[in-house]
Backbone:
């Protein structure tokens, strides 16, 4: 470099400025990311100092802590001692000389000197109460730190040193990029190889005909573990690269050394705790694995119940699915309770406080959910209705499409899907139109009001004939007509029949067809459908003559039917 530049002062100054700018940029990058050193944090932490009876004021030179003052000297506070020592050292370094650091011991004090001039004094009251160092040992450590700071100060003004540091930083950056690229390539290649091996051998792991591991989940787990290992490796490489680059430059060397110490102090306790927690963690994993095996066995058992391979008096197909969910929840709750003492950190106050907080939140916010769930259990095991049945619930009619723990879904004949809470269903009357039907059908019923001047036997016969003409209505059992009331102006007739349509025809369509056939057959036989209203007595009494009691299509029990209107 000196051969290239020669005596060109301008080029030398330009290169020095560039190197200093690079070092300053690196320092700005690392400062917000990793914070200040321990000595610098003590300067900006007056609250911590205020809470302690001993005020610690550090002396920092070139980002390197040299000594910590903890007491006053002849009325000069520790903070003022730091300022005076910093000013004194700066003045001493501006003078020419070897800048040799020496110690001079006096009564209960040790003077730290540069070229024979005192820089600061170490007192017995400045000793760290957390360490067992003597006064001479503490002064010796301070002298070593001051010597290192002076050496780095000299190096920061050396063009050769800065050039070498820049070359080292560039080489380390290139090596870092290459290692990260190799790690990424290796992670992808290793993931493909391990996933292929896992998929090949996972099908061989069976216990009692049940696969212990699924190929998709195993492949996902392998990729996740390799991705985690790759990211940890990149993190370590990044920290080491940044630490090396910072240690290459004199001004940031202290930060690089503290960064290495930070990573080591962070990793050692974590690894120690992780190794210590392995036995208990394995116990917890074993408990969860047993719970998983039990739930898989329950899945197979309830699947056999739903398919009809296993038949039990206390458990039918409709209640098998909710019973399966309840059993699995109970198994996992017991597994969690059994594994809780073995979970890492379960004995800490933070873990206990979090458990109490979660329990309090559940107890305060889940009261309505518990009521809804209890209603769902009552409806499920009370067997008020099943999936696929046609019911009338809370003034709504439709086919049950889903029975959940908290709500029930009903689809009406108009294409609407209604979601009704189980608590409201339990508090209302439920009409089930499918329970008494032979097959997957439902009950059809409708009411008509006809005047008293129409023979009731004729009305019965007309309604039954309309039901028989409706496709999907069963002839066995036969439709029935009931007179539900004799009101002031007309009787009320109720037609009840059962329908099992060949296709998935909604009940609303079949009911509409039945009503249309009722209108047609009443018109066909000349009987008007009306509900008379009176404001005065009629001139002639509204009676049915005896010879008209069996008007067509009504027939006597002992005579053939007559279809002449």
Residues:
């Amino acid at each position: 470099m000196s051969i290239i530049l020669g005596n060109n002062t301008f080029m030398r100054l330009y290169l020095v400025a560039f190197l200093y700018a690079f070092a300053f940029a690196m320092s700005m990058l690392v400062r917000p990311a990793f914070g200040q050193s321990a000595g610098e944090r003590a300067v900006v932490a007056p609250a911590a100092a205020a809470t302690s009876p001993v005020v610690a004021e550090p002396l920092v030179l070139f980002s390197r802590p040299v000594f910590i003052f903890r007491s006053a000297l002849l009325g000069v506070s520790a903070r003022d001692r730091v300022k005076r020592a910093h000013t004194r050292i700066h003045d001493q370094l501006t003078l020419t000389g070897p800048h040799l650091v020496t110690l001079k011991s006096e009564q209960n004090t040790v003077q730290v000197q540069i070229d024979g001039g005192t820089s600061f004094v170490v007192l017995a009251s400045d000793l760290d109460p957390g360490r067992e160092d003597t006064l001479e040992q503490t002064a010796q450590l301070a002298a070593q730190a001051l010597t290192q700071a002076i050496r780095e100060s000299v190096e920061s003004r050396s063009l050769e040193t800065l050039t070498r540091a820049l070359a080292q930083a560039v080489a380390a950056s290139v090596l870092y990029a290459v290692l990260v690229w190799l790690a990424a390539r290796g992670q992808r290649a290793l993931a493909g190889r391990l996933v292929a091996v896992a998929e090949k051998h996972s099908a061989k792991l069976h216990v009692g005909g049940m696969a212990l591991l699924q190929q998709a989940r195993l492949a996902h787990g392998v990729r996740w573990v390799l991705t985690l290992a790759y990211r940890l490796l990149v993190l370590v490489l990044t920290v080491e690269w940044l630490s090396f680059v910072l240690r290459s430059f004199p001004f940031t060397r202290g930060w690089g050394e503290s960064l290495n110490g930070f990573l080591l102090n962070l990793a050692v306790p974590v690894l120690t705790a992780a190794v210590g927690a392995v036995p208990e963690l394995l116990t917890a994993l074993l408990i969860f694995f047993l719970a998983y095996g039990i739930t898989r066995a329950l899945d197979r058992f309830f699947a056999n119940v739903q398919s009809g391979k296993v038949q039990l008096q206390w458990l039918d197909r409709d209640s098998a699915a909710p019973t399966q969910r309840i059993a699995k929840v109970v198994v996992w709750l017991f597994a969690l309770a059994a594994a809780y003492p073995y979970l890492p950190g379960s004995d800490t106050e933070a873990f206990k406080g979090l458990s109490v907080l979660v329990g309090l939140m559940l107890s305060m916010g889940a009261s309505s959910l518990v009521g809804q769930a209890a209603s769902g259990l009552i409806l499920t095991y009370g067997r008020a209705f099943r999936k696929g049945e046609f019911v009338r619930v809370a003034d709504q009619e439709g086919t049950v499409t889903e029975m959940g723990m908290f709500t029930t879904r009903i689809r009406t004949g108009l294409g609407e899907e209604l979601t009704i809470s189980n608590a409201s269903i339990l508090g209302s009357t439920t009409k089930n139109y499918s329970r008494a039907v032979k097959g997957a059908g439902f009950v059809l019923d409708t009411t008509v009001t006809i005047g008293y001047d129409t023979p009731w036997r004729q009305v019965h016969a007309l309604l039954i004939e309309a039901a028989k003409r409706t496709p999907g209505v069963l002839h066995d059992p036969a439709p029935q007509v009931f007179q539900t009331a004799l009101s002031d102006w007309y009787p009320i007739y109720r037609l009840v029949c059962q329908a099992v349509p060949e296709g998935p025809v909604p009940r609303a369509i079949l009911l509409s067809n039945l009503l249309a056939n009722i209108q047609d057959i009443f018109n066909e036989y000349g009987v008007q459908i009306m509900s008379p209203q009176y404001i005065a007595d009629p001139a002639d009494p509204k009676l049915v003559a005896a010879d008209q009691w069996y008007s067509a299509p009504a027939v006597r029990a002992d005579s053939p039917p007559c279809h002449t209107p």
Observations:
- The chain has five domains: 38-155, 160-251, 292-371, 384-432, 442-548.
- Residues 1-20, 22-53 have pLDDT under 50 and may be disordered.
- Residues 253-307 form the longest helix (55 residues).
